[in-house]
Amino acid sequence: MSNLERQTAVERTGDGTYRADVVEDWKMWVPIGGYLTSIALRAAQAHAPSTMARPVSVSCHYLNEAKVGPADLEVTTLRSTDRAGSYLVRMNQDGQDILAALVSAAPTGELSPTLNWQEAPESARPDELETTILDDDVLALMGDEPFWKMLEFRMVKGLMGSHNYPGVEDLTTEEMKFTPRRDAHIRGWQRMPCGEGHKDPWVDACRSVIITAAMQFATVADPFTPPLQFIAPTMNLTVDFHTFHPEEQWLLADAVGSHVGDGILGAETRLWTQSGDFVATANSKMTYHDFSDPRTMERLGKSWFQLTEN
Predict the structure, then answer these.
(1) How many CA atoms within 13 Å lie on the side-chain side of 31?
(2) Can you say whether the dihedral through the CA atoms of 115, 281, 207, 217 is positive or negative?
């Protein structure tokens, strides 16, 4: 059993109820959304019949921040046939709702064509790239968080965007906050050593969720750095699972920003194997909070999720 399999495991406590242990390894100030969503996936797996051998998608809304320790989950079957299942998962800690997730699942081996409509983008192999190091300002803010020890990232540098951006030399500090230097586009190889050594598509889906979720904020923040001038808690995350490759150590992630406006940022991440198999697609929405706003820093010192409140 891999570490990721243990860290996302759930125990049945009753009819449709389960308990999980939220561990500190996946903490970045608070336990990250991708990890919590993975626990919700495993609860749906435990609840679904064994014929539902693979997840198809998960769509998760984050309601309150979680903490390290026990979490209770309730799973409701919304629809179940021999070809598909739909499940509603709710996570709760100490009487407070943490998340609500819709999970769809299906059998494997059903008759259909097999092909990729989305080809992998060009990239050097992971062994040809150097491990990416966080910028100094990001290290100062969050570099000590346990989450960073769980993933290895090797960025493809020199991506050419489709837009021309003005120079920032003559801009004021305030103007620089809202002036992008480059396209919102990050590409690179991701490895999760704790997610290796298993054969379960549901656990492999957890790896895809965590990797794609972790790319979203970095992608929308990058055009406006350095320095990092805002934070963006995730409101919701949707991940569609295409194929499963637990034997693969490295996955190619290609993430792009979709839109920013009205204090909301959007991003999309896609994953491929080294041989070009399409693994997963993720989309998320985040809320923008400027570090120059005293309320942001005050709430950051108290509760991450309070950033989303007025």
Answers:
(1) 25
(2) positive
Q: 114 or 197, which is more confident?
A: 114
Beta carbons of 84 and 104 less than 8 angstroms apart: yes
Q: How many alpha carbons lie under 13 Å from residue 194 in its C-beta half-sphere? A: 19
Across 50-60, b (16+ Cβ under 10 Å) vs e yields eebbbbbbbbb
Name the burial class of residue 269, with classes exposed (0-12), middle (13-18) and buried (19+) by CB atoms within 10 angstroms of its CB.
buried
185-238 residue pLDDT tens: 999 999 999 988 889 999 999 999 999 999 999 999 999 887 888 889 999 999
pLDDT above 60: residue 38: yes
Q: For 158, which DSSP code?
A: -
Helix (H) or strand (E) holding 209: helix 201-221
Please check the confidence at residue 142 and state whether its pLDDT lies above 60: no
d(CA 46, CA 30): 25
